[in-house]
Structures are given as C-alpha cells and as structure tokens.
Write a structure and sequence with these properties.
three-stranded mixed sheet; hydrolase; metal-binding; about 375 residues; binds zinc ion; zinc; Mito/Outer_Membr_Metalloprot; disordered N terminus; 3 strands; protease
C-alpha cells in the first residue's frame, strides 16, 4: 500500500533504518501489530522526536507568521500558563500559524500551535491563555499520544510497521492527521477544558475566558453554517459551556485578570468570516489527507483528499469536541451528509482546509526569567 512505501522510503531516505527494527521482525498478524503500537514504549527522546516531526508537518501545511513580537507575546502568555502546569520544564514551543482558519493544535513534548485566525477572534489575553491552556493540557496529560495509540491501532493492524525510528515516522504522520481531525476522545477534550481553566485561574486569569472565546466562535460560525444550511443549534457547545461553568464553581476558581490592553496592542489581526476563508483546492500541494486511518503525508495528499470528497458518507471515527470540530456544524458526520445535500459544496472544511502561508520556519523567541516575571507582574498575574 502507498503508505507502507511512504514509511519505508522516508526511513531509507533519512538513513533511519534501524537495527532495532529487526528485532521486531515482520509481525504477520494484525492484532500483534496493533499491540505493538499500543505497547510502544516512549522515551523522552522519542516523544521529543515525534513532537518535532508533527510540528514540522503542521508548519509546512499552514506556514508560520514571521513576526517576532507576536511570537514573543504568545510565548510569554504560554509560559505564564505552563509555569502552573505539571510539566513546567518541557521545552515549550509556541507557534503562530499563518492562516485565517480558527484552530489550535498540540503536539507531543511541548509544541503548541495556534492560528492567527484564532488570535483575531480573541478579545483579551485571558482568552488566549484559555485556548493555549486547553492545548497545554493535551500535552501534559499526553492526550496526543493516547489519541495516537487509540486511533492508530486499526491502521497499524493493516500495515507493516517496523520499530524504532521507522515507528516514529509512521506515528508522526498518523499524529499529524489525528490533530488535524481533532481525534481526541470526548473525555480528553472535556479534561482539557476544565483542567485548562484551572491552570489559567492559578496564573491569575479569569477562568470564564475560555467560555467567552467559545461563545464568540459560535457566533462567528452561526451565519456561515446557516448559509450552508447546517443546524443552527449546537448542543455540544451548550454541554461544553455547562461543564466549564460547573468547573469554575466546583473548583472555586478565582482568577480575575483579563489583561486586554497589552493584548490589543500586540495582536492586531482582523477576523475573517468562516464563509470567506480561502481554502486549498482538493489535491493541491499542502492539503493534508483527511483521514487518520490513511496516514498520508502532505505530499501524498491527492488520493486521500479526493477519496474523502468522493466518499463523504464514510463514517468518521468520532465527533471531535475541540476548536475546529465544534464550530463546523456538529461533527464531520453531520457535515458530510449536509455537504451531499447542498450539492455544490466541494466537501472542504473551511478551517482544516484553509490556505496557509508558505514559510514553515520557527520564529526564535528569547527572554530572560526576569522578563517573564516582569510580564506576569505587569498583568497582575502570578
Ligand atoms: Zn482539544
């Protein structure tokens, strides 16, 4: 199959063929291969390698805003939050993606990506902290790796997967597709929300900020979804807001800071209505495969994206509960059915399939611990 060739060629090209692979051998039964994935033991080095590869794929897909001031600001906010997390010492990297789409993605070992389209919708720093915190929890609780193991079992069962570095190559591609599809479990999404607002409240931010952002997001998508004939009500959103409100009461979360002034000074992007987001054409360079089961790379996108467009009735794994899924009309199953109904639509998701910038380079950010402390103090944060 195509993907086996992709894995093998990547492995060979990168000189990653590993003697350790031999000890895994070629396992002939699918169940054993699935177990091989689920039992894969991760060292910190392997998690770091996986996160770096996934981040590279995300950055190649959407590009990176080449603005040092924006990256420094987002990183200072992110580090204010991670300092309250269970893993303050991870090599946290905050990346602003160059696209109008509204989304955020976590990758293992400290990579947090947020789109400038998401920044454009936010009113204050607390909302930014809330969305970053949601992704930070996906990292610290290793939801990224859990989703990978769970969602990759089926494909691993159907493919031949070697061990060591070849396994990481295989999983990096799968993880990339997972995060674009927001393939976390509902429970992990809910945990990311409630644990995330607990984190920002500890830092001094108002925990209501995440819910405020989600409200703005739902409003922003309302007209677009009605225009497309999708359901105008979002029961998932109501349930999510209800859980956020309950967590604030139960946890006695008492943060109060919104910090809007310096946010507005630094973040000056203008939101683009969902219906006006430019999308990449199916099959063009940079459009990632739509299915985590296929595990395609960006270069291998044509077949999978075409397949998705032609076979919208194929049941998705599950409805996501994150930023992108939440706002696109109640899950891809619903959306797919209605895309069929609308006739003219090309089956593209305006958020996931949005056009991105062309420069994938990470923007280096430097600041001293004293600078971070001063940043917190200026925002009345801790
Ligand atoms: Zn999430």
């Amino acid at each position: 199959m195509t993907f086996i060739r992709t894995v093998l060629s990547l492995t060979l090209l990168a000189g990653l063929a590993n003697p350790a692979a031999a000890q895994f051998g070629i396992i002939e039964q699918g169940a054993k291969r699935a177990k091989q994935v689920s039992d894969f033991n991760w060292s910190d080095e392997e998690k770091a390698a996986l996160g770096a590869k996934v981040s590279t794929l995300v950055r190649q897909r959407y590009g990176v805003v080449q603005d040092t001031a924006v990256h420094k600001y987002v990183t200072l906010v992110g580090r204010t939050v991670t300092d309250k997390s269970t893993k303050p010492g991870l090599p946290w990297t905050f990346i602003v993606l160059d696209t109008d789409a509204v989304n955020a993605f976590a990758a293992p070992h400290g990579y947090v990506h947020i789109t400038r389209g998401a920044l454009a919708l936010m009113k204050d720093e607390a909302e930014l902290a809330g969305v970053l915190a949601h992704e930070i929890i996906h990292v610290t609780e290793e939801h990224t790796i859990d989703a990978l193991k769970k969602n990759t079992i089926k494909s691993a069962a159907a493919e031949e997967v070697a061990g060591g570095n070849a396994m990481i190559e295989f999983l990096a591609n799968a993880a990339y597709n997972n995060i674009l599809d927001n393939a976390y479990s509902r429970g992990d999404e809910s945990a990311a929300d409630t644990m995330g607002i607990t984190l920002i409240s500890k830092a001094g931010y108002a925990p209501q900020a995440l819910g405020n952002f989600l409200t703005t997001l739902a409003e922003r998508n309302k007209s677009a979804t009605e225009k497309r004939g999708l359901f105008s009500s979002h029961p998932e959103m109501e349930a999510r807001q209800g859980k956020l409100g309950a967590a604030i009461i139960k946890g006695k979360l008492s943060g109060t800071q919104l910090v809007s002034e310096r946010f507005k000074t630094t973040i000056r992007y203008k939101p683009v209505p969902q219906s006006q987001i430019a999308t990449v054409e199916a099959g063009t360079k940079g459009l990632a495969g739509g299915s985590s089961q296929k595990g395609s790379t960006a270069k291998d996108s044509k077949s999978t994206s075409t397949a998705k467009a032609e076979a919208p009735a194929e049941a998705p794994k599950k409805k996501g509960f994150g930023l992108g899924r939440l706002v696109s009309g109640g899950g891809s199953e619903t959306k797919s059915a209605q895309v069929v109904g609308s006739g003219g639509a090309r089956g593209l998701d305006p958020e996931k399939d949005a056009k991105g910038g062309s420069n994938p380079a990470v923007v280096a950010v430097k600041f001293t611990p004293a600078e971070l402390q001063a940043f917190k103090k200026a925002g009345s944060l801790t």
